[in-house]
Amino acid sequence: MSLVAPYLNLYDQLSGEENLQFFASVRGGSITGKEIESLLEKVGLANRGLDLVSTYSTGMKQRLKYAVALSNIPKFLFLDEPMSALDDDGKSIVIEVIDEFRDKCIIVLATNEKEEYTLGRQQCRLGQ
Questions:
Q1: Could you tell me if residue 81 is left (phi over 0), alpha (psi between -120 and 50 degrees) or otherwise beta?
Q2: Mean pLDDT throughout 14-28?
Q3: What SS3 string covers 47-80?
Q4: Residues 63, 97, 100, CA angle at the centre, nearest 5°?
Q5: How far apart are CA 30 and CA 87, in angstroms?
Q6: Most CB atoms closer than 10 Å: which of 59, 73, 94, 114?
Q7: Quick check: 77 and 96 in contact, CB under 8 A?
Q8: What is the pLDDT of residue 117?
Q9: Going edge to edge, which strands form the sheet with 76-80?
């Protein structure tokens, strides 16, 4: 199970890669360099993995939260205000993540934003 939410915290004193490694270890697993590169590329943070998270914008931190959530290949993906603090490119990444994972796991989307609600209705097959 994984969760992406604006109120979740990352470790600012660690790099993006170190955050991914830390959260993988907390789950009792590990993550390879190639997996890290792939996740960072998926969320639009390619070439920023060695930068300290303290240097990331709010939107970049939100993208890294997606990388952390996807790193364990969840069976349940909970998205709370999934497009919070994201620019148009970041929102496109969220749409791509939902498209990619909707057939691989159960996605629960919580939002008050009409744009996100509509996205959820289009993406989900209710009643199946």
A1: left
A2: 96
A3: CCCCCEHHHCCHHHHHHHHHHHHHCCCCCEEEEE
A4: 155
A5: 30
A6: 94
A7: no
A8: 59
A9: 2-4, 76-80, 106-110
Read off the pLDDT of residues 25-54 as tens digits, 9 standing for 90 and up: 999 999 999 999 999 999 999 999 999 999
Whole-structure pTM value: 0.88
Per domain, the residue ranges of the chain are 2-123
Please give the C-alpha separations between residue 15 and each of 83, 87, 126, in angstroms, as whole numbers.
Answer: 23, 22, 39
Cα 124 to Cα 120: distance, rounded to the nearest angstrom:
6
Q: Which CATH superfamily is domain 2-123 in?
A: P-loop containing nucleotide triphosphate hydrolases (3.40.50.300)
Residue type, 62: Q
Q: Can you read off the two tokens belonging to residue 46?
A: 């390619």
Predicted local confidence at residue 102, as pLDDT: 84
List pLDDT tens digits, range 86-119.
999 999 999 899 889 888 999 998 888 777 655 6
